[in-house]
Each structure stands twice: as structure tokens, then as C-alpha cells.
Sequence to fold (299 residues):
Amino acid sequence: MSLIDKLKSGLAKTRQGIWKNTVGLFRGKVDEEFYEELAELLIQGDVGVNTTMELIEELRQRQKEKNLGGEELFAEFKSLLSGFLQISNFKLDPEQLNILLIVGVNGSGKTTSLAKLAHYYKQEGFAPLLVAGDTFRAAAIDQLKVWGNRLNLPVIAQSPGSDPAAVCYDAREAARARGKNLLLVDTAGRLHTEKNLMEELKKIKRVLGKEECNLKTLLVLDATNGQNALEQGRTFNKSLTIDGVILTKLDGTAKGGIVFPLARELELPVFKLGLGEGMEDLKSFEPELFVEQLLEDNE
Fold:
């Protein structure tokens, strides 16, 4: 399925309600009531107060300068939304060791996203090695081993309660010894407000980055968590410096606007979108295409 078709089907639920009503607003009179209703809808759609106010102010300014009607203003609106977004388009180098450190709270879809990334890069010709860095939960280790068996990929794991940084160190050494060029590291995801977790993750990142490698930290966020996902993004980025966001379960939310404040307020680039349960359903993020499908006008 093409990216356009997947976005169309994956955003079907998101397009209804709030975003459909947003599109409908531009068919009416553009006055003060229009801007008030637009702001209300955007906030309901998880765009957030700060990003919404910035968007409304810029839209007012453009309308005033260009004397735009509803259809023209709608085009400006889509352009503004696209412009707010950032993408994470880093590349992996098959000639060196690449490490993807996958972080996020429990339940966000970390381990499944890691498996989908492993599947994708395996198809691209990389030699992945999976690492069970969440040693606090036996179930997390077992889950990664199941994915390793399904994908026919090796997994580095130790017993529950092991030092996660030591597991990651051993995994990096194993990757070099086995000639692997991609290490995908699963991590613990207890509540993001727990300081000890952040210290542990920072320790893992230091250990992994001690020798020359292409190390990227990816934050997995559940789109259905709305503004709480924004707070998670703020906390993880402050501690770890995030290179890209994987926004999961986007097909399961009627809102979906969280992507805008993530990019605008936190300057977090989006790397992938989770648009379904299948192994092929983790898709690259393209801002213009995303906005176009989010605001597709079917009437």
C-alpha cells in the first residue's frame, strides 16, 4: 500500500469530527466568530493552546495582508500547519555501526515499533541485532525474544534485574564481533516523571556512545495520549536530546493534532508514524502529505 493510501486509511478516524468540522469552517464567513470556533476546534484536536494561538495570529495576519476569502485562507491554513512541522530525516550508514536507542513510557508501543524498524532495515539490507535493555520486566525481555524469533533476528538479553547499561555494552561489543551494523535497543519505560529512570537512560546512552558509532535516540509517543504525550516529549528531550519521534496509534485517535506542538513548541522532529498493527504500517513522515490527508475535503 502506498504512503498516500496508508495515510488515507490510517487517518480515517482522525479526519472525522474535529478535523472535518475544521474544514467546514472555511466554507462560511471569516469573522471573529470564525477564529474563535477555529481556535476551539484546534485545541480540542490536541494542537495545544500555545501552538493554536500562534497559528490563529499568523492566519489573521495573512488574511489581513492578502484580503483572503475562505478557500484561499484554507490553503494558507494548510501551508501554515505544514510549515510548523519538522521531520527527522537522518540516514543510517551501512559501513559503520548504527545504534537506535528506543525510549518512551510503558504502553506507548516501544517494543513493537522497534520490531517494525528492525523489519524495515533488514529489508533495506542492514544486519540488525536486537537488545533487551528493559531488564526491569521479565515480560519485556520475553516480548523482544518473541519478536526476534518472528523476524529471524538475534537478540541480546540477560536475566531480569541485570544492569541495563552493562547489557547494552555487551550488545555493542557483540555487534562489532558479529559484523552487525545496526543495534536496536529496547529500554525501560516506567513513568516519565521518575528521575531514576532518566538517570538510567542517560547512563545507557553514555555507554553506547563511548566508541565511535552513529547513535540516534528515538522517542515513542502514543498519539492517543494527547497533551500528556507533549509533556513526555518535553521530559525525555530535556534528559536525553531526542533525534526523532515515532508517533504510534495515530489510526486509533480522533484528534491527532499532537504532532504540531511536538514540532513547534518542543522542536522535536517526527521520524515515523504508526498507522496500524502490520509490520509495514510504520511509515515515514511527510508534513505536506500528512496535512493534506488530515484535512482532506470529501464534500
The longest strand covers residues 214-222.
